[in-house]
Write a structure and sequence with these properties.
The protein is 50% helix and 11% strand. The chain is mainly α.
């Protein structure tokens, strides 16, 4: 009887030790995560201080999403730890707020608005406004390039191009932001240079114009 009781007590202690070990691991992991986020936040603040016109935000531990613009950009780039900054930069980008790939879409239709809002939804439904406008800008740049179909619908449904038309995400209900960004693009034009016609999870074409926390935008 004493032996059985001893074994039960030993097993209980082992279970409690295991529980405590896991609890300590969770606490330590949470502390490391918080410390990493805090360190990244400090780095973002330092970048912002060096380049006041830039918009630096924390995308997660060790990742800073920076929209560069104005003086101080090169200094901020040199000071940023390698591999921590995801850039959105270049003349005519959304940083400047200027349409660079062409002006407003003349004579756009409700179908154009519908298709553009749905492809933005399918590719970046809940992403920030900038990302949504990048997505839509690639569509407009393709429409205007002469190398792709000459309509928004033709570009979006060109075989093998937009996966959201095949996996069903295109048919989700667009958010108010999706509709608003699609309309803005039709009324103002692309926020990307006209030669930026690739948007994907990796490098394409001849080079990378910008990389965000979501996609590469290439020419």
């Amino acid at each position: 009887m004493d032996k059985i009781l001893f074994e039960e007590m030993r097993m209980q202690i082992q279970q409690e030790d295991f529980f405590m070990y896991n609890k300590l691991k969770q606490i330590a992991a949470a502390a490391l995560f918080a410390a990493s986020v805090m360190a990244t936040t400090v780095q973002a603040q330092e970048i912002q201080a060096m380049a006041p016109e830039a918009a630096a935000s924390v995308n997660g531990p060790g990742v800073i999403y920076v929209k560069f613009g104005g003086p101080g950009m090169e200094t901020a780039l040199d000071a940023a730890p390698e591999g921590t900054v995801e850039l959105c930069q270049g003349p005519g980008s959304a940083v400047s707020g200027q349409g660079a790939g062409g002006g407003a879409v003349q004579g756009w239709t409700e179908e154009d608005l519908y298709v553009l809002a749905h492809v933005i939804c399918g590719e970046a439904q809940n992403c920030p406004d900038d990302e949504q406008r990048f997505i839509g800008s690639v569509v407009l740049n393709r429409r205007n390039s002469g190398r792709y179909p000459g309509t928004i619908k033709g570009v979006v449904f060109q075989p093998g191009q937009y996966s959201c038309t095949r996996d069903g995400n295109y048919y989700r209900t667009p958010t108010e932001a999706n509709w608003a960004n699609a309309r803005w693009l039709l009324e103002n034009g692309s926020v990307l240079p006209g030669n930026v016609v690739f948007q994907s999870g990796g490098r394409q074409g001849k080079g990378v114009y910008l990389r965000t926390g979501y996609h590469y935008y290439c020419y």
